[in-house]
Amino acid sequence: MDSTGLRVALFSGNYNYVRDGANQALNRFVGYLLKQGASVRVYSPTTDTPAFDPAGDLVSTPSFPVPGRKEYRVPYRMSAQVRRDLKAFAPNIVHLSSPDPLGHRALSWARARNLPTVASVHTRFETYPRYYGLAFLEPLIESILRRFYRRCDAIVAPSESMAQLLRNQRMNYDVGIWTRGIDREIFNPGRRDMAWRQSLGIGDDAPVIGFIGRLVMEKGLDVFSDTIDQLTARQVQHKVLVVGEGPAREWFQNRLPNAVFTGFQKGQDLGRAVAGMDMLFNPSVTETFGNVTLEAMACGLPTVAARATGSESLVTEGVTGRLIRPGAISAFANALQAYCIDADARHAAGAAAQARAEHNGWDQVNQALVDTYLRVIRQRAQGLAPKSSPVP
């Protein structure tokens, strides 16, 4: 079999109703599959106001809003309509992109029909409770995740550091890599526009510390703010540029009253905003990859990031940026201060980062996942069931 014989049922907790790096990667992948002649059916919650048009055929699933985070929805069951649609579509592989209730039901549905399943890991769900005072729940969530991922034929992670973490957590015996690509037409140093920076009140000589991403607390907004406070107390010249939108925007603006907030940006505007920065500060520990880090690197920026999964696979310590112990405010401030006051070091790290980003093209990384699909289908055809815990 080649890719033209693939019939993929993809289950997602958020395919297009809120824009994020994970679902944009999924949509790009579905577009790639369709160009290769594969058939794809996507099952996900939908809303009346999606963030963008979906790639491929999208079937709406029953869902309810997340308490306290109403912009997100939880798909809680596989309805009769979805089951009929699945039966008519007759997939030969099931892709699970979220370990939510629908993902669990879809996994059981596939196992009952001896269909191979691949799960992609997009975020570290087990780390989320610590940002809401519920860190004691992490072992329980990790156990639930382990049961889910062990029932799959294979799982894929977006970085080697995340893949190794999944192996250490004993999530599955077959852990591969589906990394992320970069659109070099959008993200490159040539997008830098000093007139645009000036229109935001940013002087040409001001080193710009950037934040890119959804404005939610689990992105490390508290660590970011505390670090900027230290730079200000040290009287280090800098300007903060925040690109993104989210429910924590008001909190973030109150914490950083002198920062420039552009709101959500996309396409060429996003490329211009990223290239308009001088360094990226990414203190989050929840990402499995860090699309924003790769985008910044492609624009020739050094990154100061938490030493965590995702960032460790992108940032080379002391070469393309700095990796700092998570939550170490003073160490973060020291690294940012060094780049703010030493333009030569900043430019050298940025050039090295741009060279590193050249290795990530979308077609190459998406083909790696297609190859994983074909392998697990071939293994199932040969009677090779996945090694997993004995759960039905």
From TrEMBL:
GO terms for molecular function: glycosyltransferase activity. InterPro entries: Glyco_trans_4-like_N (IPR028098), Glycosyltransferase_grp1 (IPR050194). SUPFAM superfamilies: UDP-Glycosyltransferase/glycogen phosphorylase. Residues 20-185 form the Glycosyltransferase subfamily 4-like N-terminal domain. Coiled coil: none annotated. Keywords: Transferase. The keyword Transferase applies. Gene3D superfamilies: Glycogen Phosphorylase B. This is Glycosyltransferase family 1 protein.
